[in-house]
Amino acid sequence: IAADLAANNRNIEVDPEWEFPRDKLIIEQVLGEGEFGRVLRAKALNIAGNVGYTTVAVKTLKDDAGERELLDLLSEYRLLKEVSHPNVIRLLGASTSPGGPVYLIIEFAEYGSLRTYLRKCRQIKSEPNIRCSTGEQWTPTVQYDEPKVFTVSARDIISFAWQIAKGMAYLSDMKLVHRDLAARNILLAAEKVCKVSDFGLTRDVYEDDAYLKKSKGRVPVKWMAPESLSDQIYTNKSDVWSFGVLVWELVTLGASPYPGIAIQSLFHLLRSGYRMERPENCSVELYQIMRNCWEADPEKRLTFHELAEKFEKMLSEEV
Ligand code: ADE
C-alpha cells in the first residue's frame, strides 16, 4: 500500500461533482491485485450523502502502471459516472487531484468476486442451502469481517444469470460494450445481488455497433467471441458470447473454461464448430441458452433483454 502513495503529478481534469478528499479515506487492506491495478478496502467519511464512515472499495494503480493503464482507469471513471443500475457497480467518488494517487471509489461488495464466491461454495455442490466452511481459502486473521458461510442453490445460479443479464441489458441500452464479461468481473453484494464490474476495457459504441480494437492489452481469449478473436470486433453480441461462458462458470461453480485446451488452438476449434459440452448438473434448458450465446453468427444470439426474460421465466416456473 505504501508504494501506492507515489504522488500523482499528472494534470487530470478534476470533476468537482465527484471529487473526494483523500484525507477522508482510511485505507484498510488490499482486496485484490491485477497486473497494474489494485483494489483496496477503505472507510470513507461522509461520502455520497452517507453520514459517518462507509466501507468502500478503492481502485488504484500500482507503481509500475503506465500511461495506458492510467487512461483505462480514467476511462472507467468517465463511464461509471454515466451508469446507474442495481446490477451495475456504483461509483461513489474519485480522488484525482494532484499530489496523490488516482482513486476510484466504488461501492463495496461484501462477498467479493463471484468466481471466488462460487469456488468457496464447492463443498456443498448440488446440496442447496447447507452451510459450508470455506476450506483451505479461509484466512480468518486477515479477512476478519468476511461473511463466514458460503452457500449457493440451483435457484441462486439462475438468479445470478438473470441479474447479470439485466445489468448487461442496461449497459447495451447505454450503447456500452463491456469486452471483459467473466465471473471474475462480477461482484456479489449483500443479499446476493450481482453487480457487473470492471469497466477498464469498456468502450462506447458509436455509429455502427462494432468496435474495432486499436491495440494489444490483456486478452481474455476463453471468453472471447470468434469475431473478436479474428477481427477484433466487439459488440453487444460478442458480450453475449462471453455471457454464455459466464453462465458455464456459474453452473460449474467457478471452473476454468475449456479445461485442457490451449488458447492457441481455441480459435480453430471454435471455427470448426467445437463447443464446451453440457456440464454435469446443468439442465438441457440452461445448456441450450449457453449454446445460443455461442452461435457462430452473432445475429443468431439472443439479446441481453431476451436472456433476462428467459431467466426471469425460469425463476417464476421454479418452486
Ligand atoms: N474486489 C474488487 N472490487 C471490489 C468491491 N467493489 N467490493 C469488494 N471486493 C472487491
Automatic annotation (TrEMBL):
<protein>
    <submittedName>
        <fullName>Proto-oncogene tyrosine-protein kinase receptor Ret</fullName>
    </submittedName>
</protein>
<feature type="domain" description="Protein kinase">
    <location>
        <begin position="25"/>
        <end position="315"/>
    </location>
</feature>
<feature type="binding site">
    <location>
        <position position="59"/>
    </location>
    <ligand>
        <name>ATP</name>
    </ligand>
</feature>
